[in-house]
Amino acid sequence: MGFEQAWLSYEPREVSPEWYGIHGIYADCGGRITEHAAAELKAAIAGITGKEPVLYADLPETEREACGEMAGCILFEKEQGLKEGGYHLFERKGALIIGASDDRGFLYGAFEVIRQLQLGNSYQGIEIRKEPVMPLRMLNHWDNMDGSIERGYSGNSFFFDKDEILVNERTVTYARLLASVGINGTVINNVNVKDAATWLITDKYFDKLRQMSEIFGDYGIKLFLSLNYAAPIELGELDSADPLSEEVRKWWEKRMKLVFERIPNLGGFLIKADSEGRPGPFTYGRTHADGANMLARAAEPYGGLIIWRCFVYNCRQDWRDYKTDRARSGYDNFIGLDGTFHDNVILQIKNGPMDFQVREPVHPLFGALKATNQMLEVQIAQEYTGQQRHVCYLIPMFKEVLGFRTYAAETDDTVEDIVAGKTFKQTKCGMAAVANTGNDENWTGHDLAAANLYGFGRLAFEPSATAKELAEEWIERTFGKDQEVLEVLLFILMNSWRAYEMYNAPLGIGWMVNPNYHYGPNVDGYEYDRWGTYHRADYQGIGVDRSRQGTGYAGLYREPNASMYDSPTSCPDELLLFFHHMPYTHKLQSGKTVIQHIYDTHFEGVELVDEMVERFESLEGKLPEKSCRRMLERFLHQKEHSREWRDQINTYFYRKSGIPDEKGRKIY
Ligand code: GCW
Predict the structure, then answer these.
(1) Burial (CB count within 10 angstroms: exposed 0-12, middle 13-18, buried 19+), residue 537
(2) Which of the 8 DSSP states describes residue 354?
(3) Bridge partners of 378?
(4) What is the distance between the alpha carbons of residues 336 and 466, in angstroms, rounded to a whole number?
(5) Confidence grade of residue 28 (pLDDT, cut at 50, 70, 90)
(6) CB neighbours of 320 closer than 8 A, spacing ≥ 6?
(7) pLDDT at residue 62 tops 90
(8) Residue 20 DSSP SS3
C-alpha cells in the first residue's frame, strides 16, 4: 500500500457491485477545479474497481442524453441554492448526480463520492446534501526556509529546502489530500518569520510561489504567507514599522500591490506580532488594531485577509510574581480592541489560554469578543501531546472545545457557532490547525497521527461528525475494510487522548515537560523560569489560584461559566488545578483525593497504554508491513516513556506530600 498517498490510496478493494458498472463521467460544467475533481474521480474509480470510466469533460449538459444510457454514469450538474463549496449527491435512474453551485462544490462533491466508494457503500438511493460549516478551514505550517520545521515531528519541510521553494509531485499530493477533507487555505511558512522568510514577499520568490499557489488553486486552496511585521526595516528599505507612519503605510500599499499581482491566488497573511520576541506595533506605542488595520487596508483592494494571532503574553515573567497570569494575557491584550478591527482582519485565537496543553479551558476571548472576526487555532502537531511518537487522537478534544457554551447569546453560542459565523453573523471566520506534516513517507511520522490531519479537515467542514465516525472512516479508507483492524485501531485512537492525559501533568495544570523541546516529564522544568507556566506545588498542595481571590482569570468568562470555574466545588475535576490551588487531601467530585487521583491515573494510564500495545500486536500480518513496523516501534517507545511519566510524576508528589498510595503500588 502506498503510504505517500495516505487515505487517498486507490488500490483495488471490494465495493458495492454497482460501482463496477460506472462507465462514464460527465463534467463539463465548471472550470479548472472541476476538471481536477473529475480527473480525481476517474482515477479513484479506475484504481479501486479496475474499470476505467470515460471522462466526457467537454460535453454540454444538453447533449448528454444523446450519448445514450445514463445509468452507470456520474453527472456533474449545476444546482442553484447551495452555499459555496456545498454539494448534493443523489441517484437518478441509475446515474449518480453531483449537484453544486460552484467549482468548489463539485470538488468536494467528487471527494464525497470517493469517500463513499472507498467505504464500499452503495450509491443506490443515495441522498447527501452538505455545505461547509466553517468558511475558512486552514492549515498553518511552521516550516522554516532552511527545511527545518518548528515543532515538526515527521521529517523536514516539503515546501522549503536551503532557502529555496520546492514545487514537485508532493505539492500536488498535498493539495489533493487537503482538498479531500475540505481544507481551503494553507499558510506554508512559520509564524516566526526570520531571515530568508522575510523575503518571501519580494521578487526573489514570486515565481515559485505563484507556481505553488496555482497547484493549490486547482484544488480550491488559497495560499497564505506568514508575514514579518518589521519587513520594511528588515528588507532594508525603511527605518521604522510604525503603523501610523505615512511612509510605512505607503510602503505596505506598494508591497501588497506587487505581491498580489505576482501571486494571484494568494489569500492573505498570518501575523505573529509582539509575541515571543517577534516585532510588532508595541515598539511604537501602538495597538494591535493599529498594526492589523494598517496591513488590512493595504491588502483590501485584492481581497486579502489579515489573520492576526492573539497569542500575546509576557514571556519574561518573574516566577515569584503571583499576580501576573499568562492565562489572562490574550484576553487583556485584545478585549479592549473589540469592534475596532477592519473588516478583512480576523483574530486567530488558540483553543486555550496557555499553549496547546493536553487539557486547558476554552480561551476566554471566545464569547467575549462580539464585534470582531475570529478564528479558532488548534494544534495537530503534537508539541505537548506526545510529538507524534505517542499516539494521541485529538479530535475528541476539538469536539469538546467546539461544543463549549460561551453564553454570549441565548442560543447558538458555542465556540463552533462563533467560528462558523452563526453567533455574530460573520463570514470571515473558521478554524486553523498547526500542521503535523513533513517529508516522511507517511506524512505524519506516526501513521496514526494522520487521523488528526484527516479529522481536522473533516471536522471544520462538518463539525457535527463525531470523533468516532471520523476515526472509523479514516481507518477504513487508509487500511481497508477489516473488522478486526477497525476495532483495534478504533480502540487505540479513541482512548489515546484520555491515556495521554492520565499519565501527563494532572488535573489541568499542564507544563511538566522538559523546557525548550517540550518532550518527556520534568515536573519543575518550567517552575522557576520566565515563561509564566507554573504549578506552584509545595508539600501541602498544588495548583494556580485563578479565582476571584487569585488572579481573577475565572471571572473573564460569562456566567454561569465564571461562577462554575470560580469555586472548587463546581469546577470540573479535570481543570481543578488550573483554576485552584488545592491541598493534596482535597476530595474531588469523583470522591478521590487529589493525591490519590494523581497516583491512580498515572498507574491506570500506563495500563491503558499496555492494553493498546497488546491489542496492536494482535494485528500483526493484517497491516501493511512497513506501516506496522513503524507503528510498533513507536508503541514500544510509548510503553517505556509512559512509565517514565508515571514514575516521575508519582515520585515527585509522593516525596512532596509524604502521602502514600492507598493501594501500596511501587513509587520510588
Ligand atoms: O509555545 C509556542 C511554541 C512555539 C510557537 C509558539 C506560537 C511558532 O513552543 O514554537 O512558535 O507557541 O504559537 O507562536
Answers:
(1) buried
(2) S
(3) 433
(4) 36
(5) confident
(6) none
(7) no
(8) helix
